[in-house]
Amino acid sequence: MKVGIIRYPGSNCDYDTLNFFEDSFFIWHKETECPNMDLLVIPGGFAFGDRVYSKATGNYTILPGEQAIQSPVTKVILEAYKKQIPIIGICNGFQILIKLKLLPGMLLKNAIDKFDSHTVKCVIQNKHLNIEEKELDIPTANQFGRYYASDETLINMESNNQIFLKYKTYNNGSSRSIAGICNKEHTVFGMMPHPERSSNKQYFTWFFNKLTQKKDIKYHINNIMASEHVSYKSTAKYLSKLYTTGNNVIQGPGENAGIVDIGDGYAIAIRIESHNHPIFIDPYNGAATGVGGILRDIFTMGARPIALLDFLRFGNDDYNEQLIPEVINGISDYGNCIGIPNIGGDFYKDDTYNYNPLLNVACIGLVKRENIVYGNALNEGSLLIYVGSKTGNEGVGGADMASQSFVGGDTAKLKDNIQTGDPFLEKLLLEACQEITDRKLAEGMQDMGAGGILCSTVEVISRGRKKTHKNLGCNIYLDKIPTKGELKHSSKLISESQERMLIIAKESNKAEIFEVFKKWDLEYDIIGISDDTGNYSVYNGKNLLFEQSFDAFDYPKENWEEVEFPPQFSELKKIKDTDLWKEYDSTIGCRTIKGPLKPGSYSILDIPEVNKHLVVTWGKNFDECYSEMENQAAKPLGIINCLNFGHPKDSMGEFARLVDEFNQKCLNHKIPVLGGNVSLYNATNDVSIKPTIVLVMIGLKDKVV
Q1: 2-213 has which CATH code?
Q2: How buried is 548 (Cβ within 10 angstroms: 0-12 exposed, 13-18 middle, 19+ buried)?
Q3: Residues 6 or more apart from 642 whose CB is under 8 A from it?
């Protein structure tokens, strides 16, 4: 890491800072050309112009940073900012960054109006950079170290994860005990304590390296792969205990959908997902893409989607009232356009969802057993084929956003994380994938959902490694990805543009597959190939941009304390607005025997292929689903779950309890769990939602003659 250190006349911290970094150099205060560097540091100490001498009075006036910003080197600072070179200002350097309006707020005299120097205990964290909370002893030495910002600014800063350092044992009057902040883009950092004087040199070296990785493809890859939404690192130990076996189970959790045998060579595929944060930010597109994503989870298994269900949880405030019709429109427009009936679901209201409305979408598909396709690459030399919509900047960082909690309710900045959907293109993609499945041309298929191309390619190789015990790896070619204009390398990998699929196939089937794509007028290209290196390698042309062992994607698990969830006494209010359900087409496809407009938390689908009826029940707990299944005299085949919780720090205890309770019911009745979804971080201003479970059970019964 090459580090430039700005040197003003009179600084007493310049050499401390220079010696802290191994590859560092001074930038004199009269220089104006921005040099090549990975990090720019403005050191602390009594820098240039802080003490202004008056010949008339013979006295000094202390004006921190005021004259320093008039120095020619200010051009270097501003140019580095434009180039997105990370900048950190320490103590007086922090003051300079504020004076240049690169950081919000102001620095005032300490509450004790005198110079203060000692080691203080601080807490450092940065969610944007995936830096977990850590306590550190850091020296501080200043007189103008009291940070101040308006309440509105502070709320916005918390919402943007701009506060990365707080005092724990020191009170100099700073707003909310703030000791360090950054800008919205997380490229400019300012802090009052002196890390260059700290005994924790190793930690701060690592921290500064994290800053420089912000624009690096390695940073983006590892940040996405380590997110809770992708890796389930906090909840895996609980979910692994679930009862998932049974005579009818073909595929349990771990694939794009669960699958159960229904006889006569046919099977049912089923999946449920949450799309909570997106609907709060962009209700229409958030809801529409939630439907589009769950449909792809089904047909990527070779199944044809035959039914949708949606489960809504909204608040009671005015903003939620505005969200509801847009969410309903997004669900209905997408499902109706592609031709999949919405056969059921429910709708509840409660104040706990005011800033965290929930949308859980389930999908059911029908597949011939011989046509089931899994999301894996099994051999060296398999082609990784891209098909569908072109890749754009939509949804960049969407997976990571899903592992964040909302603060302050300000979501405008997150609009770019929300994708837009095209149901008509999805219909073409569905039919093309069905044709490839029928013709047995694919070794595997995978939806490009959360984490985009990155996660989909990592998943198919990882599953193949697990199934075959081969040292599989892959090469990914960024220049082969169909794009909407120029994109950053990282954006190509992690974009969550909709209506895209990954097909894994042998070279010998390439021509036939391409014929199918041409028939359905779809974009396609070979974007990668599997190999036996055990590495995930990313190329742009012939240039290797990233290489990492697949073993390195196994990120450490987090063990949250299982504290008791704070009691919430309100009861969910069920909404029975039949007009709402009329916007969903529940009859298209001609399978619906009983849909959402008739009473009861169940629906019935005709499956003439096996001369049976499929009964679908749902509820907030196991007993609701099971009793409705008993009422319909159907044999249960399996159940899926969608587990919505708040921040893990106060929700893991309740999560563990409810998962155990749910699992015991499944064991008692021998009903296997076919799959599910976990949605954490549903919290605003550090207040978590009420733990919310949605369950869907499926069963078979004979037709009544």
Answers
A1: 3.40.50.880
A2: middle
A3: 272, 273, 274, 311, 360, 362, 676, 677, 679, 693, 694, 695
CATH number attached to the domain at 246-280+305-369+555-705: 3.30.1330.10
216-225+373-554: CATH architecture: Alpha-Beta Complex (3.90)
Task: Note whether 597 and 582 are within 8 A (CB).
Answer: yes
Which residues 6+ apart lie within 8 Å of 488 measured at CB?
Answer: none
Could you tell me the two tokens for 69?
A: 């910003």
Extract the tokens encoding 88.
């950190």
Task: Give tens-digit pLDDT for 81-127.
Answer: 887 788 999 988 999 999 999 999 998 888 776 777 788 888 988 77
Tokens of 59: 């006295």
Please say if 275 is a catalytic residue: yes
pLDDT of 163 over the 60 cut: yes
Q: What is the model's pLDDT at position 85?
A: 86
The domains of the chain are located at: 2-213, 216-225+373-554, 246-280+305-369+555-705
Query: What is the band of 291 on the pLDDT scale with cuts at 50, 70, 90?
Result: very high
Give the 3-state secondary structure of residue 20.
helix
Catalytic residue among 29, 275, 277, 647: 275
Residue 544 and residue 547: Cα distance in Å, rounded? 8
Pick the catalytic residue from 186, 194, 229, 613. Answer: 229
pLDDT tens digits along 349-407: 999 898 889 999 999 999 999 999 999 999 999 999 999 999 987 655 444 444 444 54
**Tokens 């011989």 belong to which residue?**
370
